[in-house]
Predict the 3D structure of the following.
Amino acid sequence: MDDPSASRRHALSCMAWAGGGLLWTIAGGIPRAALIGSAQAQTQGFTFAQLSDSHIGFTREPNTDTKATLGEALALLKTAPVKPAFVLHTGDVSHLSKPAEFDAAESILATSGLDTHYVPGEHDVLDEAGTKPFIERFQKRHSQGDAGGAYYSFDANGVHFVGLNNVVDLKAGGLGNLGAAQLAWLERDLAGRSASTPIVVFSHIPLWTVYAAWGWGTDDGAKALALLARFGSVTVLNGHIHQVLQKVEGNVAFHSARSTAFPQPAPGSAPSPGPMKVEAGRLRGVLGVASVTLVPGQAHLAIIDTPLGA
Amino acid sequence: MLRRAVLALPVALAARPARAAEARVTIDNFVFTPATLTIPSATSVTWANHDDIPHSVVSANRPPDFKSPVLDTDESFARVFDKPGTYLYFCGLHPHMKGTIVVT
Ligand SMILES: [Cu+2]
């Protein structure tokens, strides 16, 4: 793994293998992959988990019981070799923003016993009241960056976490959207922080353009990334595309997590990004959670994606 | 008798919106079909979502001059267009989905 070209080949072959748990360590711009077994010895730092796209309320093929699979995801975190300090949920908690869906999600997520920090997906802000019901229910623990914005930041174990909202005020023909007010807040939020502070940014829609034809990107995501450019370690987490995907650009590592509800096709591989139909026996192999570890004394975070089942 | 027939005409026109002409736009695979629909004034347009993911119909004007509720699978939304013009719209959840209604 010390030879960069061998490392890259290994990384690419691991990316193609979507079935099992992977560890990603990002150092010097070269992604280095290892299987979970060999990685576990290293996971002695600070670990948190990422959940995404639980879509409580979705009851169609390939998953007619999204409550059960969310419960299984939480059980997986409980029995993980390293207990996460807390959970980030990157949105689409619900399918249609219905109060009953939020109720069900809230009570299932409470069974984790872990603090959970949420950002909204486009399925969570469908109510006439916009972001208000989501903020009141899922972002109470944070003071809002701007009133009603559904974005905020917090610090934990020396890492600065920034939860962004790129699912409101969307424009015809566009992608995800942060907007001028949120970008101005982000600039103020980052001002004065040391460039050596590890930064974790989490949002629902990818901040980078994964596939514009399916809307998988954020129109003004590059403006947010420009504000993050001076930091030595930046990890950008997202959901929305219901599959593991990663990319490294300089000091920035991008990672997209699996859904706990249903998979979506690889970019451009199907007529539409709608739910991918998989046989019941294969469903749990394409759902999952991510676990992210800050390794003490190192500027890179390690990310393990674990499926719910084989 | 001629005068009476002329007078009756506006009454007939006024009655038209009650049984407006109808047109449909379908949503399949995250696409509005037809992408551009041309209709005479006073036509009722119904959007029907055939996907297994919800969509919505939102006017591209700011603020929007019309907006459907979220349409889950097999739900639909109707709106009567009674003023000539070009109406651009998109899906509020998936804004890359766009369509146009041309009212002549
Ligand atoms: Cu849509």
Remarks:
- Chain B touches chain A at residues 29-31, 51-54, 56, 58, 60, 70, 72-73, 88-90, 92-98 (CB under 8 Å).
- The longest strand of chain B covers residues 21-28.
- Residues 2-15 of chain B form the longest helix (14 residues).
